[in-house]
Amino acid sequence: MIPFARGRLPVVGHFAAYARDSFAFLEEASRVGPMARIEFPVLKAVLVNDPDLVEDIFITQHRHFSKDMFARDLKRVLGEGLLTSEGDLWRRQRRLAQPAFHRERIAGYADAMVSATEATVDAFRHGERRDLHADLMKLTLQIVGRTLFGVDTHALADEIGEALEAVLARYVDPIAMGVPHWDKLPTPLNRRFVAGVAQLDRIMRDLVRSHRAGKTGNGHDLLSMLIAARDEDGTGMSDDQLRDETLTLILAGHETTAIALTFTFLLLARHPDVRAKLEAELAEVLGGRSPTHADLPRLAYAEQVFKEAMRLYPPAWSTGREAVTDVVVGGEPIEKGTQLWVVQWNLHRDPRFHRDPLVFDPSRWAGDAHKKLHRFAYWPFGGGPRMCIGHGFAMMEGVLLLSTIAQRVRLSIDPGHQVELVPSVTLRPKGGLPVKAERR
Ligand code: HEM
Known about the structure:
The strands form four sheets. The protein has a five-stranded mixed sheet. A three-stranded antiparallel sheet has the order 4-12-9. It has helices spanning 15-20, 22-30, 51-60, 69-78, 87-97, 103-107, 110-122, 132-149, 157-170, 174-178, 188-212, 222-228, 239-252, 255-270, 272-286, 300-312, 344-348, 391-408, and strands spanning 35-40, 43-48, 65-67, 129-131, 319-323, 327-329, 332-334, 339-342, 409-412, 421-423, 427-429, 434-439. The protein has 440 residues and is α+β, with helices and mostly antiparallel strands. α16 (300-312) crosses α18. The protein has one domain (15-439): CATH 1.10.630.10. The protein is globular and about 60 Å long. A hairpin with a 3-residue loop joins β10 and β11 (427-429). Protoporphyrin IX containing FE is lined by residues 67, 82-83, 94, 144, 248-249, 252-253, 256-257, 260, 315-316, 319, 380-382, 386, 388-390, 393-394.
């Protein structure tokens, strides 16, 4: 019998403890054992805390699981795009999108990533205070627009950002987890959500229309490829499907990377020794010139810094699955319909797998020792067939943007500044990240 996490109350279950401090509750629940039962008024879930069991769910027995109820709910925003679709539709769409993420294709995006970053960072004035998270969101949006869709999202950045804020706000409303059907009521938050989705919908449909008409795109970008794709019977993709894929790739392809970099710079500001070592590597490898794809193998420390930041602050902080049949996991019967919840945040900070887990130490990724780590003890990009399609893109982008920015500016954060984490669909810093920029 799987034990309950502690702190369960009548009627609300664990909801009060979760709403008080989500991460403290989940960390505490992870100590109950390899699995722990969690109950909210809207959710009955099993928290899975053992990498072997995670492997069983995401790889060995993946056919017994679908995405979870939260991913299903996300269809209200993303429709049937790559992140949320299932079965044959997902398989076909993944196959069609895959070529845009091949190694050689991604290498071709490097220069666009660096030049967009240089333009962004060159606008930082010496001594200026900025919201780094907002800057990075715009930058990564611009990069995904330019590289994958051959469009300039500059003019759209504010509109997309605003719509996205409205949409994501609903996913952090703790009451939605505690009160059934709360999300169907016409509260201000829910009305903003509906308006935000409508705004994103209109932007994406305009983009698909102008691409179809040849007014945007370069003919071989990802959206052009999807538009040109034909089934065996010669039919192409509907505008609805193209809208869903475009929105999914634009959202999944920029917010996570922006978050990973935001936390990277937070950690660098708090660890001057790491920053000094990174700056020394940049000076040695680049000597002041712009990084290119060919430099990546030598920007080893930059990669370690980026990986380590994603260990402590995984942008996709938790992932869920739903059992589609009765199934046995870790010797325990799991009923069809059960939600299984795996929290990367916990596994990445678990002392069973990571020495001094709360210490920011990029050098733990040097040498070979980390290669023995269980693949589900560190998995910022997920695992199994639904692993992130953009992980190679994101790693390259992370290292190039980090190197380009750190080469040109030093960002500091007020020592007293407390970062409040928001466990939305992604892990967000509440109110962004205020930094002071010094030109180097
Ligand atoms: C640091 C950056 C990123 C992180 C941490 C991240 C994380 C993840 C994770 C954990 C999943 C799996 C979700 C699950 O199993 O339920 C995922 C899926 C996905 N990601 Fe990423 N991602 C990142 C960047 C990107 C980029 C740059 C793109 C596209 C350009 C992208 C597009 C996608 C898509 C389309 C899926 C769904 C794949 C499928 O189900 O076939 N991601 N991502």
